[in-house]
């Protein structure tokens, strides 16, 4: 069982719809530990770095417009197999196809405006975390809950 970190963005629609608390609450209740969090507006340059795999795709202009349209909350969570755990909690990309019980399945109907980003591999998590956070902005702490929820 690998202890992993995952980089999460609560996208502009989550902020605009006042769903950040709800989503963070789900992550915390699952047992994931918050080890970094900040609010920022994603610039076009940052968007291109983050979504470098998509820059040449036909949907990128819309993705860029959406992700830079307002503030986001960037979060780093830590936990056992955190990357796949978070991806499971997010649901499929398209909210219409996401299962009930997932974040996108419960709160969204869109393929693009879909509330949350989560790293899709530990390597992506390391790359994306370095885009949004300086090393000193991440915290390390032990918690008595660790042994109960992991
Ligand atoms: P994310 O990277 O944001 O966690 O989402 P994902 O893995 O579920 O989906 P991905 O294929 O990586 O796409 C990145 C984001 O681009 C937008 N998108 N729009 N209009 C479209 O066809 C389309 N496809 C993707 C979504 O915001 C998606 O989350
Ligand atoms: Mg992705």
From TrEMBL:
Gene Ontology CC terms: cytoplasm
Pfam families, A to Z: NDK
SUPFAM superfamilies: Nucleoside diphosphate kinase, NDK
E.C. numbers: 2.7.4.6
Gene that this sequence comes from: ndk
Cofactor needs: Mg(2+)
Subcellular location: Cytoplasm
Active-site residues, record numbering mapped to chain: 117
PROSITE patterns reported in the protein's UniProt record: NDPK, NDPK_LIKE
InterPro entries in the record: NDK-like_dom (IPR034907), NDK-like_dom_sf (IPR036850), Nucleoside_diP_kinase (IPR001564), Nucleoside_diP_kinase_AS (IPR023005)
The protein's name in its UniProt record: Nucleoside diphosphate kinase
Function: Major role in the synthesis of nucleoside triphosphates other than ATP. The ATP gamma phosphate is transferred to the NDP beta phosphate via a ping-pong mechanism, using a phosphorylated active-site intermediate.
Subunit-level organization: Homotetramer.
